[in-house]
């Protein structure tokens, strides 16, 4: 194939896209929570200040988790699917009693 040719794009469903984003966010959250807490435990044992380093690791884990969630939501809102669903009106069911 020549360099100038355009490759066909894959059609990706909304469900598979959000599923993959969820998996991506899951492993990022796992790392951002576990690493600071486990690091705080080991540093606390090494320096004999277990509580201080554990609390510091916990606070860092919360900050990293919030950052991870915000970045994922910002990325999801940039997708073209988000613009389609913003324009949709909420359908209300009328009950005929």
Structure in a nutshell:
The protein is mainly α and about 100 residues long.
How would you sum up this structure, described in words?
With 97 residues, the chain is mostly helical. The chain has a domain at 36-82. It is 73% helix and 0% strand. It has helices at 14-47, 50-78, 80-87. α1 runs antiparallel to α2 (50-78). The longest helix has 34 residues, at 14-47. The chain is elongated.
Distance between the termini: 65 Å
- The assigned structural class equals mainly alpha
Mean pLDDT: 80
Q: How much strand?
A: under 5%
Q: Tell me about the biggest sheet?
A: none
Shape: elongated
H/E element order: HHH
Helix count from the secondary structure assignment? 3
Percent helix among the residues? Answer: over 70%
Low-confidence stretches: none
Q: Gyration radius, to the nearest Å? A: 22 Å
Q: Tally of extended strands?
A: 0
């Amino acid at each position: 194939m020549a360099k100038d040719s355009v490759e066909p794009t894959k059609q990706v469903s909304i469900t598979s896209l959000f599923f993959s984003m969820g998996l991506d966010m899951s492993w990022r959250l796992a790392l951002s929570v576990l690493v600071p807490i486990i690091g705080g435990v080991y540093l606390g044992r090494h320096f004999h200040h277990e509580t201080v380093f554990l609390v510091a690791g916990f606070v860092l884990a919360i900050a990293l988790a919030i950052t991870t969630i915000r970045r994922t939501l910002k990325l999801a809102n940039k997708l073209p699917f988000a613009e389609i669903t913003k324009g949709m009106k909420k359908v209300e069911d009328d009950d005929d009693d």
